[in-house]
Amino acid sequence: MAKNTKDHENTAKLTPQREAVLQVIRAREDHPTANEIFEAARAILPAISYATVYNSLRYFRETGLVREINFGDSASRYDGITERHDHAICTNCRKLVDFDCNEADDLMRAAARKSRFKPERVYLTLMGLCPDCRDVTN
Ligand code: ZN
Ligand code: MN
User: Fold this and answer.
1) d(CA 113, CA 130)
2) Which of 64, 66, 85, 126 is the most buried (most CB within 10 A)?
3) Which ligand is nearest to the CA of 132?
4) CA 62 – CA 60 distance, rounded (Å)
C-alpha cells in the first residue's frame, strides 16, 4: 500500500493551492472530508478558498492522484493511496482504516461469475465497530 510514486509528471506543475491540498491528503491516514481538507489547507495557505479546495479535489480525482470514497450516508472522504486496498469503517465513530484483503481476487471472480460481469476491480468495505468503540460497548 505504498503511496503513488509514479506520478511525478502530474505533480510537478501543480499550483501552490493544489500542492497544499495534495499535501494535506497524503499526510493524513484518516481519509478526510472536503471540509477537513479545507481546514488543514488553510493552515498552510491562509488565503485558500473552499471553492479552490473543491476544484482541486475534482482535479485530483479525475487525474487519479486521489480516490474519492463515498459510503452514501455522509460527506465523501478522500484517500491519497490510489493502489487497490480495502476499508473498514466504524458505524459508531466513523473511523475509517485501510487494510488489504488477500482474498479480494477470489471474491472478485466469484462476484463476476454470479453477475456475469467482466471484472475490473473490487473494493471491500467492512462496516462494524472499531476496537475503541467495541471496548466501550462490551
Ligand atoms: Zn469507532
Ligand atoms: Mn484508504
Assistant:
1) 32
2) 66
3) 1
4) 5
Ligand 2 mean position to 75 CA, how many Å? 15
Q: How far is CA 86 from CA 20, 44, 80, 83, in A?
A: 26, 30, 13, 10
pTM for this model (two decimals):
0.80
* Beta carbons within 8 Å of 124's beta carbon, 6+ residues apart: 86, 87, 101, 104, 107
Higher pLDDT, 136 or 85: 85
Could you tell me the domains of the chain?
5-79 (1.10.10.10), 86-137 (3.30.1490.190)
pLDDT, one tens digit per residue, over 25-70 is 999 988 999 999 999 999 999 999 999 999 999 999 999 999 999 8
Cα–Cα dist 100/39, whole Å: 30
C-alpha cell at 117: 460481469
Say if CB 77 and CB 31 are below 8 A apart: yes
